[in-house]
Amino acid sequence: MLRLAAICRRPTFWAEACAAAAWAALAAGTVLAWGGGGEAQGTAFTHGALWICTLGAGGASTASSHVVAASGGASLSAASLLAAAPMWALMSGAMMVPTATPGVRHVAVHSLYWRRRRATVEFLLAYLGVWLAFSVFVLGALTSWAPTRSPLALPASLAVAALWQLTPYKWRALRACHRPSPLPPRGWRATAGTVRFGLLNGSACLASCWAIMTAVALTGSPALLWMAAATVLICLEKLNLKPRATARRVAVLLTAAALAFAAAPFIA
């Protein structure tokens, strides 16, 4: 019991618990989707606001059917993108909260004890708000752009992600993910400072990881495996003591994946 209480007092405990809950919800949704008579992943989420839109490997018909189902039979619209927001928020929380633990720890440690949880929530809302806006934008762009239905879309996106790993802009963004920010102790200034830090940290993380996340958006089912793989790669980059060397290794893995997917149609 004492050890459990010590774990609960960790500055990052509640953020880690929320990420674990998000992964559990996504895993449960995937099981329900695949349990429905062998239907493609995402079908179980097409009822109501929770749905997943998979592109790329599922083909044009799969992607379009998911989009139409999500929007109630209409073409993709602002309303359907808003309906997708809860699912994209869940996916963003599952994938990106584990990579934000340094920022969560900074906010928790440098906030007064009585407002530590509140500050953590404020930081995560701002941080995930950046990723939610990006997710909705990417979803709208990819589902309405014809080239994303090409078999070469996924290999091309993986190649772009590999190239981005080697640019100085990527390394600059990766360094910015670890840049601290002063946090006022109390009052509206404390809230404003925490939200500002969440926006800055989320923007730096977006600049670092947008290419990988775009490639994940282009994958077909089972998308949960791609999400888990991308989360591991991003965590290795952001939580490693030598992030630049890790970024190079991730670039090699992305290049190998791009070549494999490009060659797959000729091998099959």
Task: Please provide a written account of the structure.
The chain is mostly helical and 268 residues long. It has one domain. Helix content is 72%, strand content 0%. It has eleven helices and no strands. Helix 2 (13-34) crosses helix 4, helix 4 packs across helix 6 (116-144) and helix 7 packs across helix 9. It is globular. It starts with a helix and ends with a helix. The model is unreliable at 37-75 (pLDDT under 50).
Walk me through the topology:
Blueprint: H1 2-8, H2 13-34, H3 59-70, H4 78-96, H5 101-109, H6 116-144, H7 153-165, H8 168-176, H9 187-217, H10 223-238, H11 243-267
Please estimate the helix content: over 70%
Order of helices and strands: HHHHHHHHHHH
Q: How much strand?
A: under 5%
- The gyration radius over C-alpha positions equals 19 Å
Please give the count of helices.
Answer: 11
The overall average pLDDT, rounded, is 78
- Please identify the structural class as seen in this structure: mainly alpha
Our measurement of the CA-to-CA distance between the termini, rounded to an integer number of angstroms, reads 55 Å
Q: How many separate structural domains?
A: 1
Low-confidence stretches: 37-75
Biggest sheet, in brief? none
Shape: globular
In total, the number of strands is 0
